[in-house]
Amino acid sequence: MRLRLPHAPYVANKIAIDLLNSPLVTLTRGVEPVVHTARDVLEEELKKEAALDERVREIIEENEDEIEYNLADSRELFKLIKKRLAPEYGVILDYEDKYNDYAHKILRKLYEEDLINYAVPDNRVKNIIFDSIMNYIRSYDEIEDVVLEKISHYKKKLIPGSEEFELVFQRMFEDELRRRGMLV
Questions:
Q1: d(Cα 148, Cα 157) in Å, to the nearest integer?
Q2: pTM of the full predicted structure?
Q3: What is the rounded CA–CA span in Å between residue 107 and residue 50?
Q4: 145: which of 69, 123, 128, 139 is 20 to 30 A away, CA to CA?
Q5: Which helix (H) or strand (E) holds 126?
């Protein structure tokens, strides 16, 4: 699964909870400032990737006739163009490297803003943040399946994509995150 902008608040909460529960870290101003800072870093990084994706789509649209003429695979072209432009946008494409970079940036920002204290090597605290990101990603599909299963048993049938469906899905998704200790 790839992190997207709507996931940022949930991942930030998971990071804050995991840091709070770690015996290696002390939160100097509580959970909320940590959540806010982690969310800001994640959103900034995810917006960079969204901007890159948008630019790649524009390039493909601009060359649509040539792509069709050459019978090129637009998905493969998307990947190739994105790979070429990624350094220009400051985007890392390998997921593990990307999330490791996010963890470093979050740690740096938390430390700079004096939101956390620790007496262990930076890498140990960075690993807590990285593990939080990865655990959220691993849990997402499972949580989504649980929520969709619950929605399917509603008496009133909700239409996927409708506003009502999205509201119910989000509420149930957040309830499931809380139940698993991933949301404050």
A1: 12
A2: 0.87
A3: 23
A4: 128
A5: helix 122-152
